[in-house]
Design goal:
18 strands; alpha/beta; eight-stranded mixed beta sheet; 11 helices; about 425 residues; Urease, subunit C, domain 1
């Protein structure tokens, strides 16, 4: 019976899946008249953006230049043009319905699983994924969860038939959850106190032992393949990034010391709630931070209730490369809120164009895809969107067009379809 239920579920998901992916760009496109927020801190009024073969071939000031006619010309006067927003540390496409086990493929059993590749479980026809695109989220880092080392992430664009078509960067990094040095006691409705984690040193040693064994294996000439250790290739030479989930001051400090001891080239702190307390150490070691969800409450009751809103500004002012991530409760459906997280950071002290970088160019740099994505620049991918108003404001971010690699994608979803359906119904009444 269970097998029949699973089969019916999979059939249902495939039938009511995502909008049909757009075909490869075949006609030249000119966007003119809009205000272009380039993603690198600059703004261009009345911009002319020429797109051919999926690339931006020209960005000009429309008040000073003219271009030849294009096959498709889009008048963006009074509107705003932005680079596509990037969702790092995301489980989009890995879970469809949390309560349905057959649609949940975000984690694997075991503690040390660097060989688990989230990309092969990525469902391009997720109905949840298509709800992020109408707010400008066009790229994502698909990331596994669970265990001490959860596995290996990959980066995709969010309009494709299958994961191979969606792939932008395969196996970009390994994700590790650093142990907590303390534990909270008490039931969820009756929080207790905070106790030291008596197994903290032991858990850190387990991580070190695994890295030592992996390094010894990779230096050996054994003919017997060990798949988890094989997956650790690239961590020491920088071709893979080590993403470390850590929030506490001690945890972040110990993770940085671990980086030094093991000569790890590229490390990113994910979460980083108390990163501002060790900002100088993070900066000194050239470590980026993917900051935890901005729309949240403080971890401690005696902290400033607005602290989560201010963290990005504090870290940016310290010279740290910062991006925003969205892990946590209902994270997949809340991916669409990424632009508004950046808007909150702007409301609490960041320049608005710098806040935009938190979800575009900064994140592209952290993920290692900034040569092609993250900003509107000549030679880069034409992955962008046009909004009626300020994209960082939930009242005005209303998309009229969106492009991925020059392909005009659908902004429809099951939610917009239902809206139109019932709008007609009640208008008739």
């Amino acid at each position: 019976m269970k097998k029949i239920t699973y089969i019916l579920l999979l059939i249902t998901l495939s039938v009511v899946g995502q909008q049909t992916p757009a075909p490869k760009q075949s006609k030249s496109i000119l966007i003119y008249g809009g205000t272009a927020h380039l993603g690198n801190g600059k703004v261009m009024e009345q911009a002319l953006i020429s797109i051919q073969n999926g690339k931006i071939i020209a960005i000009l000031d429309g008040r000073l230049a003219k271009v030849a006619p294009h096959d498709i010309q889009i008048n963006a006067s009074g509107q705003h043009i932005y680079p596509g927003i990037i969702a790092p540390n995301s489980t989009l496409g890995l879970v469809e319905i949390d309560a349905v086990r057959a649609s949940d493929d975000e984690s694997e059993i075991g503690s040390f699983n660097p060989h688990i590749r989230s990309i092969i479980a990525y469902n391009t026809e997720s109905k949840v994924t298509e709800t992020a695109r109408p707010n400008g989220v066009l790229l994502a880092q698909i990331t596994p969860r669970g265990g001490r080392i959860a596995g290996t992430s990959s980066i995709v664009q969010l309009d494709a038939w299958n994961w191979e078509d969606a792939l932008i960067k395969e196996n970009d990094g390994i994700h590790m959850r650093w142990p907590n040095s303390y534990a909270r006691t008490g039931w969820w409705a009756e929080p207790g106190g905070i106790e030291p984690n008596k197994k903290y040193e032991e858990q850190v040693k387990e991580i070190q032992d695994f890295f030592d064994q992996a390094e010894a294996y990779l230096k050996s000439n054994t003919s017997v393949k060990d798949i988890p250790y094989e997956a650790m290739k690239g961590i020491h030479d920088g071709t893979k990034t080590l993403y470390v989930n850590a929030n506490g001051e001690k945890e972040i400090t110990d993770a940085i010391l671990f980086k030094r001891k093991n000569n790890i080239k590229k490390m990113v702190i994910v979460g980083g709630y108390y990163a501002y307390k060790v900002a100088d150490l993070i900066k000194e070691n050239n470590i980026a931070v993917l900051l935890r969800r901005v729309h949240d409450l403080p971890l401690s009751e005696d902290e400033d209730v607005n602290l989560p809103y201010k963290m990005a500004r504090i870290l940016v002012q310290k010279g740290i490369l910062v991006g925003l991530e969205n892990a946590g409760d209902m994270e997949r459906m809340q991916t669409r809120n990424l632009p508004f997280y950046a808007g909150t950071c702007a409301a609490w002290g960041l320049d608005k164009e710098i806040a935009l970088q938190l979800i575009t160019l900064n994140t592209a740099k952290i993920l290692g895809i900034d040569a092609q994505y993250g900003s509107l620049e000549v030679g880069k991918s034409a992955t962008l969107f046009i909004s009626d108003g300020d994209a960082l404001n939930m009242k005005t971010n209303i998309l009229t067009y969106a492009f991925i690699d020059g392909r005009q994608i659908s902004l429809e979803s099951h939610q917009t379809e239902l809206y139109q359906r019932y709008k007609k119904k009640y208008e008739q009444e």
